Amino acid sequence: MRETKKRIYLSSPHMSGREQQYIEEAFESNWIAPLGQHVDAFEKEIAAYAGVIGAVALNSGTAALHLALRLVGVEPGDRVFCSTLTFVASANAILYQGGEPVFVDCEPGSWNMSPAALKQALSDAWEEEKLPKAVVVVNLYGQSADMDPLLDICGDYGVPIIEDAAESLGATYKGKASGSLGKYGVFSFNGNKIITTSGGGMLVSDDLEGVEKARFWATQARDPARHYQHSELGYNYRLSNVLAGIGRGQLEVLDERVKARRAVFERYFEAFSEVEGITFMPEADFGRSTRWLTVLTVEPEKCGVGREKIIDVLEKENIEARPLWKPMHLQPLLEGCGYYPHGEGESVSDWLFEYGLCLPSGSNLSEEDQGLVIACLRSCLFGD
Ligand SMILES: *Cc1c(COP(=O)(O)O)cnc(C)c1O
To answer: Which of 269, 317, 353, 375 is 20 to 30 A from 366 in CA distance terms?
Structure first.
C-alpha cells in the first residue's frame, strides 16, 4: 500500500517549462486578449506540423467540430454519419446544427470506423435519397482510422469527411499527419489530451476559404464595418493569446510526448501481453499511433477477472482507470438514431465497450507510479 495516495490519473497535463516564457511575452506586450501574435503563430505552427495550409485556433475541439459541420452545410434535418465509439462531443456538434446523427461501428483492426459498415450506410442512404452532409471519422485513442478506404467510399458518393483528430494529434497515416486527410480536421487541447492549452482546439484544412469563414463565425461574425454590424450568426469561439502561448510551448515537445506515451504502452504490453484473455488495442500497420491512452480488453471467462473488479481494485489505490467510451448508439441522449454495425449481428463497439479498459497513460507517469499500476493489475490477475 502506498502511504500517501497521490492520485494517478489516466492522462494529466504535462508542461515543458517553455510555456511560461510564451505567457510572459503575452503579459509584457499586454496581449492578454483578445487575439495576438501567439494565436497567429500557434495556427501557423500547427498547420506546418499537420502539413495543411490553413488553421484557426478555437476555444475547444467541440467548437472546431461545430464550425466544420456548418462549413459543410449541415442544416436542421440533415443527416451526418459519425463513428459510434467516441466521446459525446463528436455527436453533440451534430446536434448543435440540428443534424440527425447516424452512427457507424468500428472494425477490429484499428478500433476505428469500419469501411464495411460505412459502405452499407452510404448505399442505403443513396437508395433513400438522403445522403449525409458529412461523415465524422474519429481517430480513437491516438490512432488514425484507415482513411484510404473511407475516403474512397465517401468519394464515390461525393460526401466530405470531417476528421475528429482530437485524440490523435501526433499520429500518422501512411506518413501523413492524422487530421490532415479529411476535408476538415479537428484537434483538441483539452487538459487530458496529448498536449494541452488547459482548454482549446484547432480547425485545420487546405480549404483556405473555409478556414477564413470559420474564423469569421468564431469571432461573432462581425461584418467589416466600424459600427459592429452582423449579417450572419456568429459565436465567441476564439482561443485567447495567453492560452495560445501555452500551446506553442506544448507543441515544441509534442514528439517527446508521443515517445513517452508509447514507452508507457510498451511497459504495460511487456507485463501483460502474454496473459490469456488480455488483448491490447492493435496498432494498424498503416501508421503510427501515439498511444494517447493504453487501452486493452479483459475477457473474464479467459483470465478469471473482469474489468469492473480491476477498476475497483485500482480505485482503492487511488488510481484512475475507466471503461472505453460508451458508444453513441447506446447513449440515452441519442436514442432512436440509426446505427450500422461492422457485420450483420456483429457490433464491434458493443464488444469493446463491454470488455475494454483504459489505463493511466500520461507522458508524465513515472516508472514508479506505473509500477504500482502494474503491481495492482498483477494482484488482480494472478493474486500476487
Ligand atoms: C476531447 C474530444 C473532443 C472535444 O474536444 P474539446 O476540446 O474537449 O472540446 C472531441 N472528440 C473527441 C474524440 C475527443 O476525445
So the answer is: 353
Ligand 1, atom 10, lies closest to the CA of: 89
Ligand 1 atom showing the smallest separation from residue 201 Cα: 7
Domain boundaries defined on the chain = 19-251, 254-382
Contact in structure between 265 and 281 (CB atoms under 8 Å): no
Confidence grade of residue 35 (pLDDT, cut at 50, 70, 90): confident
Distance from residue 272's CA to the centre of ligand 1 (Å):
29
What CA–CA distance (Å, rounded) separates 128 from 164?
A: 27
Q: What is the number of the ligand 1 atom nearest to the C-alpha of 167? A: 15
H helices of 72-206, where? 89-96, 115-127, 147-157
Beta-sheet strand order (sheet of 79-83): 54-58, 201-205, 184-188, 161-164, 134-138, 79-83, 100-104, 338-340
Tell me, using a 6 A CB cutoff, whether residue 99 lines ligand 1: no
- Within 10 A of 114 (CB to CB), how many other CB atoms are there? 31
**Confidence category of residue 29, pLDDT binned at 50, 70, 90:** confident
Q: Is 84's C-beta closer than 6 angstroms to any atom of ligand 1?
A: no
Q: Looking at the chain, how many residues does it have?
A: 384
Ligand 1 pocket check for 254: Cβ under 6 Å: no
Q: Report CA(65)–ligand 1 centroid distance (Å).
A: 9
pLDDT at 172: 98
- Is residue 222 within 8 A of residue 234, CB to CB? The reply is yes
* Class of the CATH domain delimited by 19-251: alpha beta
- For residues 53 and 252, is the Cβ–Cβ distance under 8 A? no
Assign domain 254-382 to its CATH superfamily. Aspartate Aminotransferase, domain 1 (3.90.1150.10)
Q: Whose CA is nearest to atom 5 of ligand 1?
A: 61
Cα 191 to middle of ligand 1, angstroms: 10
The predicted structure's pLDDT at residue 31: 81
CATH topology of 19-251 equal to that of 254-382? no
**What is the CA 335 to chain-centroid distance, rounded?**
23
Using the CB atoms, write b or e for 289-312: b if 16+ within 10 Å.
bbbbbbbbbbbeeebbbbbeebbe
Is any atom of ligand 1 closer than 6 Å to the C-beta of 325? Answer: no
